[in-house]
C-alpha cells in the first residue's frame, strides 16, 4: 500500500491523506513480487488526490515545504537508466508467513554461506550487522544477476541501476531518465549487506563477496537533506517509526505491531554487534554533518498474523477486532500457551525447524482461553526480543513506545506492560512511520520548518499502560512460555514424511 499524509509541523497532526492499494503477485510458492511501475503510479495518484483534498480544505498546496519518503527496506528494484523501465518485478521482502519459504534465494544463500570460512552465516556480521539471509537486498540482487538475462545484459552495458524501493521512487520523482537523482539513505543502505556500518559507505570487499558491480549502486546520503525538488528525507520504515516516536536518546525503544513486530532500540552513535540473535542497523542520520545513530533490531514473525489465523483458519472470530472482547471474557489463558511458529522462529532463536504448537490444554480450555493465549504470545515474543536487547546494550529499558495496527487493542497493551514489567506508551496518533519521514523532511538543512531539538518537539498525547501484576506472576508465565518454545523446536526435519 502507498499512503501519502500531510502533517502540520507545529502540532504533528495529520491535515489530510490518501492511500492506494498495490497488488502483490506470488508467481511461485514463497515468491513475493510487485510491479515497480504500479508502485510509482500509486505515488503519483496519491500526490494528485491529496492535492485535491487540500484544495477542498482551502489549504494552499504551495504551503507544503518538503516531502519525505519511507519504505519497506528490503524490497529490491533494478531498472534501465536510459529508458526508465524496470528490468524485472520488484522483489519484495517476504511477508512474515512466507519468510522461511522464500525458495527463490535459498540456494543463493546456501552458496554464499558455503564459501564463508567455517560456513558461518555470520561471517559478514562484523561489517554489516546482519547474517547472510534470504531477507536482505544483496542476495536478491545476486539472484537477479544469476537468473534474469535482461538484468545481466543491462549491467554489462552500463545501463542498470539498482536500489531499494526508496531509490526507485526518488529517482522517478526527481526526473527519472531526464536527470533523476540515484540515491538512497543510510538506513536503507544498511539493509543491503553491501554497506559497511562503520565506514557508512558501500564496501568493496562486501560487493566482491556478492560479486555485485559497485557502479550500479545509488549514492548514499543522510536521512535528512535535500535530494531534489521537494524531496528532503528518506528513511526505512522502521527507522521512520523510531524517529516518529521521538526515540532520540540512547536506550529508548519502539515496537511496531503489524503482521509481525519490529522492535528497534537506539544504541547511540556506536554500533552494538549482537551476541543474542539481533540485527545491528543504522537508526538514522539526520543531516549530512551529524553523526549517525544505530539501533539493535529484533523481529517477531507472527503478531497480527496470529489473529488472522484464528479468524481465517479456525473461524473462532469473525473479525480481527473481536479478539479483544473474546479474550477479555476469559481474562486468562488458564495455563494454555500458544507458540505461533508457523514458519519457524525469528529473533532471538533464528530456528527455521520450529513449528507452531498449542500446549497446556485441559478439558476446560475453550476458544476464549485460546484467544487470550494468542495475545499473550505476541507479548512473550516481544519480551524475548527486549531481554536480548537489554543483554546486548546493557542499558535496561525504562518504557516501551508502541505503534501499529494492533496497538488499538487495549487488552494487548495491558498484557504487554504486565509481561515486560515496564510502562507501555501508545501515542493516540498511530501514524508514527509517516510522521518520522515528515519530521526528517521538515528538519533538513534548507527547509528548516521542523526543529528536532528535544525542547521543540511537538507534544503528542499518549495512553500509558502500567504493569498491574507482580513480578513473580509475570516471571512464572514467561518461564512457562519459554518451556513451550523449546517444545516447538526441531519439529520440521529432512526425514521422509
From TrEMBL:
Record GO terms (molecular function): ATP binding; glycerol kinase activity
Record PROSITE patterns: FGGY_KINASES_1, FGGY_KINASES_2
Coiled coil region boundaries: none
Reaction catalysed by this enzyme: glycerol + ATP = sn-glycerol 3-phosphate + ADP + H(+)
Domain Carbohydrate kinase FGGY N-terminal, residue spans: 6-233
One GO term (biological process): glycerol-3-phosphate biosynthetic process
Entry EC number(s): 2.7.1.30
CDD domains registered for this protein in UniProt: ASKHA_NBD_FGGY_GK1-3-like
GO cellular component, one term: mitochondrion
InterPro entries, A to Z: ATPase_NBD, Carb_kinase_FGGY, Carb_kinase_FGGY_CS, FGGY_C, FGGY_N, GK1-3_metazoan-type, Glycerol_kin
Key words of the record: ATP-binding, Glycerol metabolism, Kinase, Nucleotide-binding, Transferase
Domain of life of the native organism: Eukaryota
Domain Carbohydrate kinase FGGY C-terminal: 254-444
Pathway: Polyol metabolism; glycerol degradation via glycerol kinase pathway; sn-glycerol 3-phosphate from glycerol: step 1/1
NCBIfam families given in the database record: glycerol_kin, PRK00047.1
Similarity field: Belongs to the FGGY kinase family.
Record protein name field: Probable glycerol kinase
Amino acid at each position: 500500500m502507498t499512503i501519502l499524509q500531510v502533517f502540520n509541523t507545529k502540532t504533528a497532526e495529520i491535515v489530510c491523506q490518501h492511500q492506494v492499494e498495490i497488488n502483490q503477485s506470488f508467481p511461485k510458492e514463497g515468491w513475493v513480487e510487485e510491479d515497480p511501475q504500479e508502485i510509482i503510479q500509486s505515488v503519483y495518484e496519491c500526490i494528485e488526490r491529496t492535492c485535491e483534498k487540500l484544495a477542498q480544505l482551502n489549504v494552499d498546496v504551495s504551503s507544503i515545504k518538503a516531502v519525505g519518503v519511507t519504505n519497506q527496506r528490503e524490497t529490491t528494484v533494478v531498472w534501465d537508466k536510459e529508458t526508465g523501465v524496470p528490468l524485472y518485478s520488484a522483489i519484495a521482502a517476504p511477508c512474515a508467513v512466507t519468510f522461511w519459504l522464500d525458495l527463490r534465494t535459498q540456494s543463493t544463500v546456501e552458496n554464499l554461506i558455503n564459501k564463508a570460512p567455517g560456513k558461518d552465516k555470520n561471517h559478514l556480521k562484523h561489517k554489516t550487522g546482519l547474517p547472510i539471509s534470504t531477507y536482505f537486498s544483496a542476495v536478491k540482487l545476486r539472484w537477479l544477476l544469476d537468473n534474469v538475462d535482461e538484468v545481466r545484459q543491462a549491467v554489462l552495458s552500463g545501463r542498470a541501476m539498482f536500489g531499494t524501493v526508496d531509490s526507485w521512487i526518488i529517482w522517478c520523482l526527481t526526473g527519472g531518465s531526464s536527470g533523476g537523482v540515484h540515491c538512497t539513505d543510510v538506513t536503507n543502505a544498511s539493509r543491503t549487506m553491501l554497506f559497511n556500518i562503520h565506514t557508512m559507505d558501500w564496501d568493496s570487499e562486501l560487493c566482491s563477496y556478492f560479486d555485485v558491480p559497485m557502479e550500479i549502486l545509488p549514492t548514499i546520503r543522510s536521512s535528512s537533506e535535500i535530494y531534489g525538488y521537494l524531496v528532503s528525507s528518506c528513511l526505512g520504515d522502521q527507522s521512520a517509526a523510531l524517529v516518529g516516536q521521538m526515540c532520540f536518546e540512547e536506550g529508548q525503544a519502539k515496537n511496531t505491531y503489524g503482521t509481525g513486530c519490529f522492535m528497534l532500540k537506539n544504541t547511540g552513535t556506536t554500533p552494538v554487534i549482537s551476541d543474542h540473535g539481533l540485527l545491528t542497523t543504522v537508526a538514522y542520520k539526520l543531516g549530512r554533518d551529524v553523526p549517525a545513530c544505530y539501533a539493535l533490531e529484533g523481529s517477531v514473525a507472527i503478531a497480527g498474523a496470529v489473529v488472522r489465523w484464528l479468524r481465517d483458519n479456525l473461524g473462532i472470530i469473525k473479525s480481527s477486532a473481536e479478539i479483544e472482547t473474546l479474550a477479555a471474557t476469559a481474562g486468562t489463558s488458564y495455563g494454555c500457551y500458544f507458540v505461533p511458529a508457523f514458519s519457524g522462529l525469528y529473533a532471538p532463536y533464528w530456528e527455521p525447524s520450529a513449528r507452531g504448537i498449542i500446549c497446556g490444554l485441559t478439558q476446560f480450555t475453550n476458544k476464549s482461553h485460546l484467544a487470550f493465549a494468542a495475545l499473550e504470545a505476541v507479548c512473550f515474543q516481544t519480551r524475548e526480543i527486549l531481554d536480548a536487547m537489554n543483554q546486548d546494550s546493557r542499558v535496561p529499558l525504562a518504557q516501551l513506545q508502541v505503534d501499529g495496527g494492533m496497538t488499538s487493542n487495549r487488552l494487548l497493551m495491558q498484557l504487554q506492560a504486565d509481561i515486560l514489567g515496564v510502562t507501555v506508551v501508545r501515542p493516540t496518533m498511530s501514524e508514527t512511520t509517516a510522521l518520522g519521514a515528515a519530521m526528517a523532511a521538515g528538519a533538513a538543512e534548507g527547509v528548516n520548518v521542523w526543529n528536532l531539538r528535544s525542547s521543540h518537539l511537538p507534544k503528542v498525547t499518549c495512553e500509558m499502560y502500567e504493569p498491574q501484576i507482580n513480578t513473580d506472576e509475570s516471571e512464572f508465565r514467561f518461564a512457562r512460555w519459554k518451556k513451550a518454545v523449546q517444545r516447538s523446536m526441531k519439529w520440521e526435519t529432512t526425514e521422509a514424511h
